[in-house]
Amino acid sequence: xxxxxxxxxxxxxxxxxxxxxxxxxxxxxxxxxxxxxxxxxxxxxxxxxxxxxxxxxxxxxxxxxxxxxxxxxxxxxxxxxxxxxxxxxxxxxxxxxxxxxxxxxxxxxxxxxxxxxxxxxxxxxxxxxxxxxxxxxxxxxxxxxxxxxxxxxxxxxxxxxxxxxxxxxxxxxxxxxxxxxxxxxxxxxxxxxxxxxxxxxxxxxxxxxxxxxxxxxxxxxxxxxxxxxxxxxxxxxxxxxxxxxxxxxxxxxxxxxxxxxxxxxxxxxxxxxxxxxxxxxxxxxxxxxxxxxxxxxxxxxxxxxxxxxxxxxxxxxxxxxxxxxxxxxxxxxxxxxxxxxxxxxxxxxxxxxxxxxxxxxxxxxxxxxxxxxxxxxxxxxxxxxxxxxxxxxxxxxxxxxxxxxxxxxxxxxxxxxxxxxxxxxxxxxxxxxxxxxxxxxxxxx
Length: 445
Fold this sequence. Notes:
The chain crosses the membrane at residues 39-59, 131-155, 167-194, 200-227, 239-258, 278-311, 323-350, 362-381, 393-414. This protein has helices at 3-8, 10-13, 15-20, 38-60, 62-67, 73-76, 107-119, 125-154, 163-166, 170-174, 180-195, 199-210, 216-229, 233-256, 263-270, 278-284, 291-313, 322-335, 349-354, 359-380, 392-417.
């Protein structure tokens, strides 16, 4: 099947999409006018379908919605979420004066959590948690829709690739665990602005995303490296200025409201190994790695990402695209970090769409993610019932399997991205040489 068919009409070109299309009437017809309605139609349909995936996530957490998120039942039923924690504390004040999580959350995440708290009416502890969770779920649906629309806008000729964001099975298990999707949405909107040659807006959005989670710095790094290769120096300056401005503004906001925006990062430095990390595997095996050593390893992971990015971005223009580069660097940073949370998978979804990842590869990776989701809760809940618990050795196996899946999906993205007729994230790429001309790599001068 030609690559173009796979990209424009996935239900014709990929077996998983063909099978899934039977739910909504089957694959696109032979004589259908593909693309006649434009990318906005695809974005609208996919955004609506994304709400169904989040609704399935709500159903998966039915036990906790009825009984609360405290106790070991939330772990054994695998419905635990960090979101209801935000329902604690009094109304009013600021994210740092009245909301306990404000000191351990990045600025924008703390602000969003506080806003939801203000929208939650007073009542019993359980009712406040339920309403807080319901409001959070609506916000998450809107943020996923924004991410889907932004992704489709970058893939106007192949907008159905945004289904990698809207219809990924990992939305069921991971989307309602935290407000990570806030950072994902801001970063994706930033990428869309960059793709349309608005570097200042892109910098502001990615800088804001960094104030929700730190992973967007990887995307910023990939943009700078590719733009540097293509000699788009003015765009780099505007991009970094926009990002710096957004970060400074968020820091000033936190200080102005009586908070310490650097507290989460100071707390991170003193934390030990978290679930899903290599350091935690050492801990299971009986070894110990100090928090400072783990922090240094995580920083070295960022250094490795920079060096890898420098090497990969120095290859010929037609072989190095921004999205697979960003996904590769993201995986490096994730796997060398102090923890690899279940919701980390959400950061991968827009990049899977932008690399035109095959659904076969996506579903294999997502399958490992969902299995790990079940296993990590069985392991965490172990102390309450050792007879039912997942042994440490078995949990270690699933951690390693998950790491292999992340490496595999990053590797596969390089091949699949070559099927795209152009790089959707690189508006500054030089025009290809005329027929008969000798190709000269961008960094050869």
